[in-house]
Structures are given as C-alpha cells and as structure tokens.
Write a structure and sequence with these properties.
Layout lengths: L15 H12 L1 H20 L10 H7 L1 H31 L1 H4 L20 H12 L4 E4 L6 H15 L3 E7 L8 H11 L13 H14 L3 E7 L12 H12 L4 E6 L3 H9 L4 H5 L1 E4 L5 H15 L3 H10 L1 E3 L5 E3 L1 H17 L9 H19 L2
Parallel strand pairs: 1-4, 1-5, 2-3, 3-4
Antiparallel strand pairs: 6-7
C-alpha cells in the first residue's frame, strides 16, 4: 500500500523594497530617533531664542548648529546600509538557488558527470589513468554495465587538463549513429576535437585523415587523447576490420595519439570476435577493471552526501543498507548507480514530508523498496 505524501507549503518571500525598508528601519532606528529629537529641539530653540542671544556652546545650540551635518551623516549611513543589504540579498538568493540549499543535483542518478568532485571511489583507477596519460600510454577500462565506466571517462576529460594544459581529451561512443562506418567515426572524432574537414580528402582513407589531423595538433603543442566508450559496439565487421584496429594501433604507437577505451569485455576478446584475429598492441594496453564499491567507499559516499543534504545518522545508515546488493555467499556490495538512486529517492521523500521522514515506518519501507526496484530495473533493463 502506497503511503501518500504531503507537499510542503511554499513560502512567499516579501518583496525587495518591503524588506529593504524593514532593514533600514531596524538598522537605523536609533538614528531616526536622534534626527526627530534634533528637529524638535531645533524648532523649540528657534522660537525661544533670537539670533543675538543664540548660545552655540549649549547642547541645544550645538544640535541646532550641526543639524545639517547630522542629516548628511544619516544619509551616508542609509546608503551604506542599502549597499550592504543588496549584497546580502544577492548572496542569499544565490545560496537558495545553489544545489546545497535547493537539494537538487545532490544525487546524480543516471546523469552525466557534471563536477569531478562528485566522482567518488576508484582512487586506484584514477591514479593509474593519470599516470598512464603522463607516460603517453593507452588504457582500457573494463567492467559490467552501469558500473561507472562512462563517468570515469568524463572525469578524465575534466581533470586531465589540470595536470597538463596541453591535453585535449574528447569522448565518443561507438553507439553514436555516425560511428557505423569508418568515415563517420573519423568525422565524429574530429568534430569533438573541433576540427572540420574543409577540403576534399576522398583520395585517402578515414584513418589517414585522422592521422594528418593528429599530426597537426601535435605540431601545435596539443596532446590529443581519444576516449572511446562502448568499444564493443563496433559491430560492422566489414567496416571495422583488422585494418581499422591495426590503424588505431599505429596512431597510438607512432603518431602520439593516446587511446582510452571503455567496454564490458577485454579488448582482446572484442577484436578477436570482430576480426577473428588479435592485435599485439591491444594486449599491451593497461587494463583497468572497475569493481563495485567496497563498504568503505560506499560509507564515505553516504556520509559526505548525507551531510550535504542534511540526512541524520539513521537516514544515512538506511541509505547504506537499502542500496546494498548481495552476492550468492551473502557478501554485500554497492553499485554507484544504486547509491545515487536510493539517495535521490530518500531526499525527495524527505523534502516532501512536513513532519519529517520516518524511515522506521513499515509501510513506508515497503513502498520505498517497491519504487526503488521499479526505477532501478527500468534502467538496468534498458
């Protein structure tokens, strides 16, 4: 049975001018009292004394003499208070619209990586990739579907230039419609590098075109890095034959192109399946296997994300427990995608509950697990 959720009532903020007047009144209340008092005393002193016997050294005389200075000082205070208010208003508005306050994008379920700081775990894999890159070595990332291979490629795109500004890292997927032929693949790769083929190069092969452009980039001090996701999807055996893979090998070994591939199976098996042969080069590529998160990695994710969104200790423990999967022997493991989904669902529920999220409610637990399985399976079965 689904437990109905109640929506939070939206809070309408007062207009800018109303809040400005309110803050000016609160901040300068004492000053307004002084001004009014000074005006009253000035009027009384004007009526009670004449210009001849006006005593400037008395309190009444001093206020009468310096009233204009007091008013000017008050005007300056008003301007300063207004500027401070506007700055505070902008800061508050920005903070309310930021993910940390709005609760949005804290859990990036089934989305591209938008911030390298959102990439958790995989420390050894990241270090290996960066080290290989520095040594101009190619790498092959392998792992089950939805294990995080694409995010690792996107992470590399973001951070590689911070290690060396000469790196130009692009990512293509073999599932892209243009990658059904060698010519389309090369055209798509060069477009990602920001290169358009303006002249007619029909007399040369696609890989020769790619070789020429790589050479030009290197002559300008640019180190091209090509990431190919879903590498096993080069399924057209007539187009992607032994010559194609040998050509990629030559580009990496002789032309200075750094290749980083991602696939479910080792490159050796993929190439043998397509061509019936293997390539010595792909046997030498550093293989990086991605595994599920360990409990330590999962717990770090849960604690840091939980603190960001305001999960208490019980909610964090529930996030860890409900996102766990189990091996045949009963051992627990965690997939990044499932952690993101459980966190997203919990956060959505927490924001929708006025009285707070009761994770101990049996009905809520049943409803949550039903929704979790439904959404998770919809992605896994795609």
């Amino acid at each position: 049975m689904t437990t109905p959720s109640r929506s939070k009532k939206s809070t309408v903020a007062p207009s800018l001018w109303i809040r400005l007047c309110h803050q000016l009144w609160n901040g300068l209340r004492f000053f307004w009292i002084v001004i009014v008092l000074g005006l009253v005393i000035n009027i009384i002193s004007t009526r009670m004394t004449s210009d001849a016997d006006f005593a400037p050294n008395t309190p009444v005389g001093w206020i009468g003499q310096h009233l204009s200075i007091t008013i000017v000082a008050g005007a300056i205070l008003v301007i300063i208070t207004t500027v401070i208010f506007i700055i505070d208003h902008r800061n508050i508005s920005a903070s309310l619209l930021s993910p940390a306050k709005s609760g949005q994008a804290h859990f990036s379920f089934n989305q591209p990586l938008s911030d390298p700081g959102e990439f958790y775990g995989r420390v050894a894999a990241r270090n290996t990739l960066i080290t290989r890159l520095a040594n101009k070595g190619s790498s092959s990332i392998i792992g089950e579907r939805l294990i995080g291979k694409t995010w690792l490629l996107e992470y590399l795109q973001m951070v590689a230039p911070t290690y060396n500004p000469s790196y130009r890292v692009v990512k293509v997927s073999a599932t892209h419609p243009e990658c059904k032929s060698q010519a389309g693949f090369v055209r798509h790769v060069l477009a990602q590098f920001g290169i358009s083929l303006s002249m007619n190069l029909s007399s040369v092969t696609p890989l020769e075109q790619l070789s020429k452009e790589i050479g030009d980039m290197r002559n300008f001090g640019v180190q091209p890095v090509l990431c190919i996701d879903e590498f096993e999807c080069f399924r057209n055996k007539q187009e992607f034959d032994q010559d194609f893979f040998e050509g990629l090998r030559a580009l990496a070994e002789s032309n200075g192109l750094i290749l980083v591939t991602a696939s479910r199976h080792p490159l050796k098996e993929i190439i043998e399946g397509l061509t019936g042969q293997t390539s010595p080069f792909f046997n030498k590529v550093q293989q990086i296997a991605l595994k599920p998160f360990t409990e330590q990695e999962a717990r770090k994710f849960v604690e840091e994300k939980g603190d960001q969104v305001g999960f208490d200790k019980k909610e964090q423990e529930v996030l860890l427990q409900w996102s766990a999967l189990y091996k045949v022997n009963g051992e627990r493991y965690w997939l990044p995608l499932r952690l993101q989904l459980v966190g997203k669902l919990l956060l959505d529920d927490k924001q929708a509950q006025i009285a707070g999220l009761n994770v101990d409610d049996v009905r809520y637990q049943h409803d949550f697990k039903h929704r979790l399985d439904e959404e998770y399976q919809a992605v896994v079965k795609e």
